[in-house]
Each structure stands twice: as C-alpha cells, then as structure tokens.
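Q: May I have one protein plus its fold?
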Amino acid sequence: MMRWGLGLAIGLLWLGSVGSALGMAMSAGDYRQLGLSYRQQALYPEAIAAFQKAVALEPDNLDGRVLLGWTLHQAGRRAQAASELLETLYRNPLDVPAANALGIVYLVEGHLLSAVVTHTWAEWLKPDNEIAHYNLSLAYQRLQMYEPAIAHAMEAAKLEPSNPHPLVALAIAQWDRGDRVKAQQTYRQAIEIDGRYQDTAFLTYLDEAGFSPGQIERSQQVLKSLK
C-alpha cells in the first residue's frame, strides 16, 4: 500500500510537470489526491502543501478544507487546524465532518467545554453521529460528569458495535462513577471484540483514539482489576 501511494504521488507530480510544460495546470482534485497520497505515508508537510493548493484553487470546497484541517491536526499543528476548521464551519455551520473534526481537535488539546459544545452541535445535526457521541463521552468523563459520559458512550457503542473504543470509554466512566462490576463487565465486552485489549501495554495506543493520559491509565486500571 505504501509503495502504491508513493507511485501515485510520483505519477501526479510527473503529470503536473508535464502539464505545466504543456500549459496545463493540476486541478484542485489532483492536489487533493496528491495530498491524500502523501498523508497515507505520513508525509504531513507535503500533504499540507498539496491540500493548501487545493483550497486556494477551490476555496468553497468544504471537503478540501476539512482534509487540510484534519491533516494539520495529525501533524500536531492544532492551532492552525482549529482555525481552518472554524473557517469551514463559518462557511457552512451545517457541515458535520467539519464539526466532528473541530471537536476532536478541541478534545485532544484539552479544551473540554469547546469540545462539548462542538460535538453537541455535531450530534444535533446528525443524531446517529457515533463520532460525536464517542467524543462527548470522553469529554464528559474528563469533566467528571459521569451520567452524560455513560449515556453517550452507550449510544456510540450501539451505533458502532464492532468498535471497542466506545466500550472502553463506557468502562472508565462506569468505574469512576463507582460501578466497578459494570465497568469490568463492559471492559470484557471490549476484549471479546478485540483481544489486544487484554494487553496493558497495547492500551497506550488509545491516545490515537482521543484518550488522555489519565484516561489511558484508568483503562489500564480497569484491565488489571480483571486479573
């Protein structure tokens, strides 16, 4: 897959150089494809540059703006990511992918109230939005508001039953509320979906799923209680 992505990137660059020689420019769509290819290889500076060119060519293409904002987030440039995604929502407040992405940026940065407001808006726009429900659970758990954390985690688990992340989020909220037995039962359900969740070291991966260091530690605590 990596080799294919590199080949696509080289091919698009070659077409761009040939097109320039013939007086033909790459389209915004070409730059988006190039950016996706770079991003797949974790070449974030190159991906960002390609997405920026796509946005410059098609400033009203909201999908292109979300691609740029999310890639900035992945590259750790979260202030710029938030700015780009806010601009997208200004252009269309009803854009669910932009709201989802902005809420995640706020969550990861620890701006919990902003994350709650943004994801609540995303959920209002799309009630079966598993991304919004899941991240609302994580935000509310960190705010020590366990009832809404549990409710949103349960909804996310119902909407995406094959994903263990909402179940782990549910387990840590139940644990912190004092429902230790329920938390253990819930965590066992996550293990049934993916056996890797029996490995304490594997849980450090949850930072890629929006968990804070404290939430990862709590997940490890719940797991250890099963043994």
Observations:
- The chain has twelve helices and no strands.
- The two ends are 39 Å apart (CA to CA).
